[in-house]
Amino acid sequence: MVWTPLHAKIHRTIRSRHLFERNQRLLVAVSGGQDSLCLIKLLLDLQSKWGWDLGIAHCDHRWRSDSQANAHHVENLAKTWDISFYLETANEPINSEAAARDWRYQALSAIAKVNNYQYIVTGHTASDRAETLLYNLIRGTGADGLQALTWQRPLTTGIMLVRPLLEITRTQTEQFCQEFKLPIWEDSTNQDLQYARNRIRQELLPYLRENFNPQVESALAQTAELLQAEVEFLEKSAQELRYGALGMGHGALGIGDEENSLTLLPLRLNRRVLQKAPLALQRRVMRQVLQQILADAPGFEHIEKLTALIIAPNRSQTDPFPGGAIAQVEGDWIYLK
Questions:
Q1: pLDDT for residue 249
Q2: What is the DSSP string of 136-178?
Q3: Is the whole model's pTM more than 0.90, yes or no?
């Protein structure tokens, strides 16, 4: 086996970030594109050092005429490498990026659960991280959206989603595939400029590279990495403040219990507790509360109108939130009912 600097880097990353343990079962999502081929080749080469049991999963969205041929191509690679292959095909073509992503993660989770894989591994790169940051920045998300694409997160109970390539750019995965003559399946939808992400990839990032910073992808990915740690800290601090405002006491509930218990209305928040906190934490507390009572993610205007009640006059109230809940000030308390 040829040991490249990329092998060494990924080996170090997995060890230093504790992404996997030894002798675990890893289900690798392989589309057939350069990033996922680079990923599976790296994991196969590192397998002897870690004792992993690897499997390949491929999701056919049925939105391209060659999608079935693409799936066969990945299946043949799995046979060549003598590792288990799992295919999930959509019942009908999925035409939106968000719906496709949700379906893909559900499909991968189901495969992992049935076949006892502890980890689902994807080939997201620093380039994907940069694109996600720009995409969410343009849409107007806060720091949480800008730090999206984390190294790992739980997908379902007992199954962790892991992204080992977040410090590697797409240029590097392409060079790696060329070096090892890996048969990349070109996805024609990646060239379709009706998708905002493709315009960011094909037009915006090249412009930024040429006119502002040749290393713009790595710089943006580094920003996402910094924001990730800050968001984790702020979320934890806001959760503790929320416990105090709800009169729960620290550690009164486990995460799972707390998530279930807070969906019930009415609930009340102590304004005196919240007034002592910085605005950033006040907003996060209100977002966490709204996440519990709204079917969809709360928008900026929802969070702002609830946050305004922290210092609003007595008897102030909001207009109804989606679903009909109303927040009202009664003395030292904000009631949601």
A1: 60
A2: HHHHT--HHHHT-S-SEEEEETTEEEE-TTTTS-HHHHHHHHH
A3: no
